[in-house]
Amino acid sequence: MRLDRFLSNLPCFNRQQVRLLLAQRRVRVDGCCVTDPQLEVREFSRIEVDEQLLQDPQPARYLMLHKPQGCVSATQDPEHRTVLDLLDESDKHTLHIAGRLDFNTTGLMLLTNDGQWSRRLTQPRTKLAKIYYVETEQVIEPHYIEKFSQGFYFAFEDLTTLPAELTLLGPRSARLSIVEGRYHQVKRMFGHFDNKVLRLHREAMGPLNLDPGLRPGEYRALYPEEILAI
């Protein structure tokens, strides 16, 4: 949100007062004096006018989790264990999931309280690749590769998926790179060939790779360079 809009939305200032405050250099954002009304501020910005603290932000949190099987990608569920149940964090209720996984799909999951960061990670126009390791019931034939690169028509959504890259690893295993996250997308793609997915494991989202040191159910904070990579 623009700084002038943030200030004018408060009950204590009108637009004219906001312009005057900025011109008089009485506004500070993250400890720095600010005069630009168009400065973008976030929920993690510390905003002060004179000595009055108007927004005292909570720290931004970014976690990488190795999601196990049999776990719901939700903040709460009446029947099943959720990914939040795996976290030993006092502020876990403030986190949301950036890129969900199906109940029995394993692998990389990211949780954060930074909405702008998670939107950059998941919104379609960024086209960040999601990398999956796949095992199937039937043999994955070489002609699958071309079909994956062409896309699949999903009648329910009335759309054709964007090109995906399929790399064969063995008779019934492959690595798949997609830039979308449609409902059960990978299973539906292989379903086109009547080939059931037996195991699905997300290895990476864009530049972020699952830490090989994390066992299923374990998590860690992202490193600064990983946060900035998105």
UniProtKB/TrEMBL annotation:
<keyword id="KW-0413">Isomerase</keyword>
<dbReference type="Pfam" id="PF01479">
    <property type="entry name" value="S4"/>
</dbReference>
<dbReference type="InterPro" id="IPR050343">
    <property type="entry name" value="RsuA_PseudoU_synthase"/>
</dbReference>
<comment type="function">
    <text>Responsible for synthesis of pseudouridine from uracil-516 in 16S ribosomal RNA.</text>
</comment>
<dbReference type="InterPro" id="IPR020103">
    <property type="entry name" value="PsdUridine_synth_cat_dom_sf"/>
</dbReference>
<dbReference type="InterPro" id="IPR036986">
    <property type="entry name" value="S4_RNA-bd_sf"/>
</dbReference>
<dbReference type="InterPro" id="IPR000748">
    <property type="entry name" value="PsdUridine_synth_RsuA/RluB/E/F"/>
</dbReference>
<dbReference type="InterPro" id="IPR042092">
    <property type="entry name" value="PsdUridine_s_RsuA/RluB/E/F_cat"/>
</dbReference>
<dbReference type="InterPro" id="IPR006145">
    <property type="entry name" value="PsdUridine_synth_RsuA/RluA"/>
</dbReference>
<protein>
    <recommendedName>
        <fullName>Pseudouridine synthase</fullName>
        <ecNumber>5.4.99.-</ecNumber>
    </recommendedName>
</protein>
<feature type="domain" description="RNA-binding S4">
    <location>
        <begin position="1"/>
        <end position="59"/>
    </location>
</feature>
<comment type="similarity">
    <text>Belongs to the pseudouridine synthase RsuA family.</text>
</comment>
<dbReference type="InterPro" id="IPR018496">
    <property type="entry name" value="PsdUridine_synth_RsuA/RluB_CS"/>
</dbReference>
<dbReference type="InterPro" id="IPR020094">
    <property type="entry name" value="TruA/RsuA/RluB/E/F_N"/>
</dbReference>
<keyword id="KW-0694">RNA-binding</keyword>
<dbReference type="Pfam" id="PF00849">
    <property type="entry name" value="PseudoU_synth_2"/>
</dbReference>
<dbReference type="InterPro" id="IPR002942">
    <property type="entry name" value="S4_RNA-bd"/>
</dbReference>
